[in-house]
Amino acid sequence: MKCEEIFAALALLEKERGIPQDFMLEKIVQALVTAYKRDHEDVENVVVDVNEEKHDLKMFVEKTVVEEVENPAAEISAEEAKALSAKYHVGDTVRFPVKNVDFGRIAAGNGKQVIIQGLREAERGMVYDEFNSKQHEILTGVVTRVDPRNGNVSLRIGTGTDSTEALLMAGEQVPGEELTEGMHVKVYVVEVRRSTRGPQVLISRTHPGLVKRLFELEVPEIYDGTVEVKSIAREAGSRTKMAVWSNDENVDPIGACVGPKGQRVGSIVEELRGEKIDIVKYSEDPAQFIAAALAPADVIDVWMADEGKACRVIVPDDQLSLAIGKEGQNARLAARLTGYKIDIKPESYHDEEAPAEDDEPVIVDDEETAAPEETAAEPADAE
After folding, report:
1. 275: which residues sit within 8 A by CB, 6+ positions away?
2. Within-domain flag for 288
3. What is the span of the domain harbouring residue 268?
4. Among 122, 185, 190, 229, which is disulfide-ready with 19 (CB 3.0 to 4.6 Å)?
5. Would you tell me the crossing angle of helices 100-132 and 3-17 to the nearest 10 degrees?
6. Is residue 94 a contact partner of residue 47, using CB atoms and an 8 Å limit?
7. Where are the beta strands (DSSP E) in 98-137?
8. Range in 35-49, 58-72, 169-183, 292-306 with the lowest mean pLDDT
9. Is 360 exposed, middle or buried, given 0-12, 13-18 or 19+ CB atoms closer than 10 A?
């Protein structure tokens, strides 16, 4: 591969792939220097001059002029330098051009290889930069393959030459959701990591961030900051609880998220294949927030613990199962949403055990609340 061919190939790569010519030239120069040093162990300082206008590369071996040579690979005596030219003095650098025959052989052997390798590195770098800038955002992909062995799904994200492949692991898919080839799905970019095999893009359909971003797309009040999503607790494919707050007293945060005739939340439920979404109003008062988080159940009273993030909630007897939810889901999601351990008791328990007006509320340990009609939900780690 001649110099002219190298520059022509780099120009084509920049035009068609968007890979900067300077980036590739740097890689080629490094490879040429390394190759020459490998074949000539008696040299240390090798440089390549690049003339982009003339599409030319020239290689030189550099040696420093010294009084007494201690390292022949990098030094030349003043006497030898003077023999080459009277202009050289101690401390100057003498450049010895590499013969065109030797340089041509090295360029031919390494130019093509470096271009291919550099192309891979550049593409990996471009993929990393593209996805790294989209961390915690939603991307739309097309299912290209479903692995029958482990359930992992390959997605093509983007179009044309700008498209790239991403892998949706089975553990990041919504339980019960069936993805088929050609289907368009929205995914949440959790993280982008560098690796020796190229960038790893971690995408998810189960992450709570997916729900938050979907609401940002559907609800202008969330996108512009009028309404804030304070916290989200999600059991993908089944139910999500989301706490919202309005920075404008004239804007109802729940109404803004639901939309006219439920259109906004309805489109998100459709995207999530029927996943139920409870939207509750956030409050800085923990008792009010906990009561709202247990919706659709009514709450009679909330007793906050003196220490730690725990509370006891009293609900009507006929709504105890509603407050707890199927397999404890409602209480579990409320605990995650609020960050509090929630001990749910029926009103009859409240009547029997209620403290006197002057007494402090009592929080009963799990061991003390083992009756079938009672439950305590633990908060999960923050989503």
Report:
1. 174, 236, 237, 238, 239, 240, 269
2. no
3. 208-282
4. 122
5. 10
6. no
7. none
8. 35-49
9. exposed
Q: Which residue has the tokens 């359909």?
A: 205
The answer, yes or no, to whether residue 367 has pLDDT greater than 50, is no
Q: Which residue has the tokens 């919504």?
A: 174
Q: Are 280 and 254 in contact, with CB atoms under 8 Å apart?
A: yes
Which residues are CB-contacts of 123 (< 8 A; sequence separation ≥ 6)? 17, 19
Closest CA to 52 of 77, 22, 78, 31: 22
Peptide bond into 296 cis (omega under 30): yes
Name the pTM for this structure: 0.64
What would the DSSP string read from start to end of 303-319? EE-SSSSEEEEEE-GGG
138 — phi, psi (to 5°)?
-100, 135
122 token code pair: 């550049």
The answer to whether residue 63 scores a pLDDT higher than 50 is: yes
CA distance 183 to 188: 16
Q: Are residues 242 and 269 in the same domain?
A: yes
Task: Say whether both 341 and 268 belong to one domain.
Answer: no
